[in-house]
Amino acid sequence: MTAARMSKRATGWxxxxxxxxxxxxxxxxxxxxxxxxxxxxxxxxxxxxxxRVVSRTVNGDRPIWPAHTTVSRAGLSPNLRRAVLASxxxxxxxxxxxxxxxINNALERQRRGGKLRGASTLTQQxxxxxxxxxxxxxxxxxxxxYIALLLELLLSKERILDLYLNLAEWGPNAFGAEAAxxxxxxxxxxxxxRDEAARLAAILPAPRRWSPKGSIATRRAATxxxxxxxxxxxxESPAPARRRRKA
Length: 247
Known about the structure:
Elements: H1 3-29, H2 31-38, H3 47-59, E1 67-68, H4 78-88, H5 100-111, H6 122-131, H7 138-154, H8 157-167, E2 174-175, H9 177-185, H10 194-202, H11 215-227
Parallel strand pairs: 1-2
């Protein structure tokens, strides 16, 4: 191979590497303006919603578009905020988007012969719902962790929790706390009782399969009601780490 050809090939490889580096940098920066916007504007739609729309369209289900009504923080019952934290992430105010303590606990359970369970934080769930797809690949989990760190860096904890409560999937074609309260209890999210809030939090691991009035929710809600006395505001003592649901 001549020196000229070798030089040309090296130049070609450098161009490829440069394009890849620029593409990676673009993808890393891409979520930032959206997250900054979400600090003051509620997202009208999420990646998960769009996935469900496609699925319902293909299956011929109606209505295609999900029930979703955004409400302010004042429109969300404090009972629901506490119930969700107690159920999903009682170390929410202690971690930075990724909970290393809970990850270590999950790995320790596996070493003792238990089943490896997910350790996704609420922030990671917001990242996945907003920007990513369902699945358990290392690529998706890596992107989820990165976006979760950005969310924690650019938004307050209370704003992240607001986003979660307004965007979480809470039943067949129902997203957000208001749609969930209307669907399951025929009332606004602001008027949810402790028991109703605990039941809604109880179905979050499988909202399209479990009913808040079913036996699984009843059993899980009983435990959540006990934990609710510990989970939530920053100025209160958080509960010890609890088991998390799968991502």
